[in-house]
Amino acid sequence: MARPPKLLGSIPKVRADWQWAGEWWVETDAVLVGAWRLPQEGKLALLFVNVSDQPVIVTVAFDGRTYGFQQPMVTVTELRAEGKGRVKNCPLISATPCLYRPERHWRGKSLPAEPFACP
């Protein structure tokens, strides 16, 4: 595991009763993020999920230096349950607004350590 990037902006909260021992209400951000480093492959996987019932826009504050990347650009491959999505170059340090829809169960990003060359 790795420390996930910070999410900026007004992130709504969600409440749920986990019912572990009677009523057990918990509250968390509507958009959750996890990070995993794959050092042997030179990759980082970021997973995002919106657990609310409404679309949420948040800004993802990413600093690739935190994960050992040094080149000025990294390649982002969007992954979805149905397969790979868009592939694009992003700056090593960025703050990107992202829309997370409630019907998306997961959204991943894989960042290779090598710079991406456009064909």
Strand order of the largest sheet: 4-5-10-7-8
How many strands appear in the DSSP assignment?
10
Report strand %: over 45%
CATH topology: Immunoglobulin-like
Radius of gyration over all CA atoms, rounded: 16 Å
Tell me the overall shape. Answer: elongated
Mean pLDDT: 81
- In CATH, the architecture is Sandwich
Features of the shown structure:
about 120 residues, mainly beta, Immunoglobulin-like, five-stranded antiparallel β-sheet, three-stranded antiparallel β-sheet, elongated
Q: How would you summarize what this structure contains?
A:
Helices cover 0% and strands 57% of the residues. It is mostly beta strands.
Walk me through what this model shows.
It is built from no helices and 10 strands. With 119 residues, the chain is mostly beta strands. The chain has a single domain, classed as Immunoglobulin-like. It has a 5-stranded antiparallel beta sheet with strand order 4-5-10-7-8, with no helix packed on it. A 3-stranded antiparallel beta sheet has the order 1-6-9, with no helix packed on it. The radius of gyration is 16 Å and the shape is elongated.
Secondary structure elements and pairings:
Elements: E1 6-8, E2 13-17, E3 25-29, E4 31-38, E5 43-50, E6 56-63, E7 73-80, E8 83-91, E9 93-100, E10 107-112
Antiparallel strand pairs: 1-6, 2-3, 4-5, 5-10, 6-9, 7-8, 7-10
